[in-house]
Amino acid sequence: MRSCLINNHAQSAIEFSLAFILVILFLILTGNLFVWLNHNLVQRQSKYEATRVQAASPSSPGKLDFYKTPELNVFAPGGIGEK
Amino acid sequence: MKKLAEGIISERKAQALTELAIFGSILLFCLAMLIQFGLQANYQQEAQMEAFRKAQQMAFNRDGPNSAVSLTLFKNKAIPDPRDQFGFAERVAIPGSGSVTWDTDQSAAYIKKFDDAPQEEDLPAMYFQMEGVSRGDVVLDQDNYPTGERIQDVAKAEVVSGDKNTFGFYTAKFEKRPCPPKIIVVFEDREHSQNTEYIKEPVFKDQIMVSRLEGGFEGIEAETGSTLLMYPYFRRSGSLIKQRITDADLDGDGRLEYILAADKNKNLFYIRYHGASPADAYDKVGNIQVDTAYAQIDPGDREVTEYGLGRELTPQDRQGLLRDFEKSIQHSGSKIVRTENAGSVESETTLNAKQTTYYKFRLNDGRTVSIPVELSTDPGTALYKWAN
Predict the structure, then answer these.
(1) Nearest Cα to B247, choosing from B371, B90, B108?
(2) Are the beta carbons of B60 and A63 separated by less than 8 Å?
């Protein structure tokens, strides 16, 4: 009876550790994904407005390549991988 | 006791599993929703910006003064949705649209050459671009489109308005044709509309003609009041505007009058009457008054039936019609006449959710005329140039 309970305590500690690590990873992943999505919205708008004059000039009318979406890396800070 | 302890432990194991299953799936659902909303917002923003920039490019690349382009873009993106079946990433159409007028500051030069017929590139252009699968069940005859462009997508719908007005709406998508995407087909005879097949070949919005039972084309029946040729005029600023006009048989003599504008508040039409004498017009269309401030119009008795060609109008035909119309205004002396109290506004009708709105005028003799709202503007500005 006693050894059985001790074994179960150990098991729950292991399970907690594993679950804790997974939950933390999940939160990091979700957080980085959220930041990456918002980063794209903000940066695309920013670049778009920065190139408005250029896009309205005859030299480069309707400039399209004003923003390149960075790669998603959920483990990198902000989810932003290589551009 | 031992059995009891084992029972408690085993229950706790089941509880942990249950908690994992419930909270884990909730967390995964939240993650999936985050991905879905995030991707959708990103694609939407991207499509909107891309549509505007592409419209800028198109407007810049077109010739003509004040090049105006409207572009609607549909991007076809796969966005995961946790509510879908497992393994199916639904493709979603992401729309974006932009309208650009690129002023090339050539209005003065353009006015000088206005004796020539307006060219196609002078008209506003509307483009549709669609990614992905094509849908539609109407196959158009390629020969109807002399420029030889490929038609990528066609959809059709029918709208029934009242018991007499039935319109077939065709929306066609072309690779690069600068034409209105909405193509309206009208019945050839409003009296027999319920038993008459509508015209199979679509005609463009600015070329709406009705085929006669005995052959050839005629202007639109009074009941429909749909738009016809583009009517050009100048604003006080000197810039050129294209205005659509409406044909209707106001006096019921079987011939059509051009309605240049209508004022719903005063129950008033500005028409170009086909009769040579304004006095005749006054007699025929109720209380007509000649407003000489809008004079200098050809007295030529040009009826729409003259343009009955027995076939679909080509761009050359259209240019010829416009040239004819312009010269008749410029070089002769008929009047634009104004009708007053010729009828009353009966209702305001929108044919469908986002298309043309019409005022329905009821004439004194009981017949009705539908006038697009856009014509219900003050024609004083529209006709200013001709009065000088």
Answers:
(1) B371
(2) no
Tell me the percentage of chain A whose pLDDT exceeds 70. 87
Which of B13, B15, B49, B103 is most worth mutating to test chain A (most A CB atoms within 10 A of its CB)? Answer: B49
- Whether this prediction's pTM lies above 0.80 is answered by no
Mutate to test the interface with B, among A37, A45, A54, A60 (most CBs of B within 10 A): A37
Position of tokens 């708008």? A45
B42: contact with A, CB 8 A cutoff: yes
pLDDT, average across residues B63-92: 71
- Contact present, B281 and B275 (Cβ < 8 Å): yes
Contact A62 B41 (CB under 8 A): no
> For residue A34, what pLDDT band results from cuts at 50, 70 and 90?
very high
**Interface membership of B60 toward A (CB under 8 Å):** yes
DSSP B345-382: EEEEEESSTTS-EEEEEEETTS-EEEEEGGG-S-HHHH
| Interchain CB distance below 8 Å, A61 and B61 | yes
3-state secondary structure A71-83: CECCCCHHHECCC
Contacts of B217 (CB under 8 A, 6+ apart): B209, B210, B211, B307, B308, B309, B310, B313
Nearest residue to A36 via CA among B164, B38, B31, B276: B38
Tell me the average pLDDT of chain B: 51
What is the tens place of the pLDDT at every residue in B348-367? Answer: 655 444 345 566 666 666 66
* A77 lies within 8 A of chain B by CB: no
Look up residue B386 and give its amino acid: W
Q: Cα(A9)–Cα(A7) distance, rounded to whole angstroms?
A: 5
